[in-house]
Write a structure and sequence with these properties.
Blueprint (H helix, E strand, L loop, with lengths): L3 E6 L4 H12 L2 E7 L5 H17 L13 E4 L5 H14 L5 E4 L4 E2 L12 H16 L1 H5 L8 E7 L22 H20 L7 E7 L6 H10 L2 E2 L1 H4 L3 H4 L1 H8 L11 E3 L1
Parallel strand pairs: 1-2, 1-4, 2-3, 4-6, 6-7, 7-9
Antiparallel strand pairs: 5-8
Helix pairs in contact: 1-2, 1-10, 3-4, 4-6
């Protein structure tokens, strides 16, 4: 069996958890990346093994012993940690077949700097994603297991956002922060960054995809929660991760046949 390596950020909740299980069940070796908490590594690896076993049971020619999942601790709020984590993965794995990024947060807070000075929300939604993708390019280019080339999937807004017009005078959103601007700039930057990577000759074997998640929640309930909770993470939006990720998981698993790899793709 040909084992495919897939890096997934934010695996322990929501859509990242669902996509990880889907891919593990299809024979991918998952390198889970997320913040370390007591017992988290064992919990994540046990979950992934269960997903692998559920897929292996339907394929008697394969063995779950061939697939060894990993957990790599990394706080995506700190770009220095993202860089080091990516460097370690590149050193340990010559070829990476897929990179799936779902890290994020939903808040009504204003500009909130990380320890490195960037805004927390923009760091999760863009800066850390750009850093992971850029640092992992050597291993993504070396992928040999995916028929149509390796895949980089950033799940955020998939082109469904407005342009951010103040990118020259306020590129980090320090002066013109608002909830709307924070949402638009993250999606806008994802579009531009991955489109730029997609047209570079060295990346012609990599498929870059900016996906869109869908929130199924009535507006009045959302307003009630917003008024009572200052910070929401993805577990609020994706209480049924297996259902929410099914379509995107299928697209990620079958993205290899795409022939026009020179263009970034929006999945709506």
């Amino acid at each position: 069996m040909c084992v495919k390596n897939d890096i997934i950020n934010n695996i322990y909740i929501g859509i990242g958890k669902g996509i990880a299980c889907r891919l593990a069940s299809e024979g991918f070796q998952i390198i889970a990346v997320g913040r370390q908490k007591e017992g988290r590594e064992a919990e994540v690896l046990d979950y992934l093994q269960q997903c692998t076993n559920s897929g292996i049971s339907s394929n008697s020619s394969s063995s779950s012993n061939e697939i060894k999942h990993e957990f790599r601790p990394c706080n995506a709020f700190e770009l220095s940690q993202v860089q080091q984590c990516s460097k370690d993965i590149v050193n340990d794995h010559k070829g990476i077949d897929a990179l799936v990024m779902t890290q994020g947060m939903a808040t009504i807070q204003g500009f909130t700097p990380t320890s490195e000075g960037t805004d927390e929300k923009l760091t999760l939604h863009y800066w850390s994603r750009a850093a992971f993708a850029n640092c992992l390019l050597p291993s993504l280019r070396s992928s040999t297991n995916m028929q149509g080339g390796s895949v980089v999937l950033s799940i955020l807004s998939g082109g469904v956002h407005s342009p951010y017009s103040k990118y020259k005078e306020d590129p980090e959103l320090k002066k013109s922060y608002s909830i709307a601007n924070a949402a638009n700039i993250a999606g806008y930057y994802n579009d531009l960054f991955f489109d730029k990577l997609a047209v570079q000759d060295d990346n012609s074997s990599i498929n870059f995809v900016h996906g869109k998640f869908q929130v199924r929640l009535s507006l009045h309930k959302f307003v009630w929660y917003i008024s009572h909770i200052s910070s929401l993470d993805q577990s609020f939006f994706f209480s049924v991760p297996g259902v929410c990720c099914k379509q995107l998981g299928n697209r990620n698993a079958s993205v290899a046949p795409y022939t026009n790899k020179r263009n970034a793709k929006d999945v709506r």
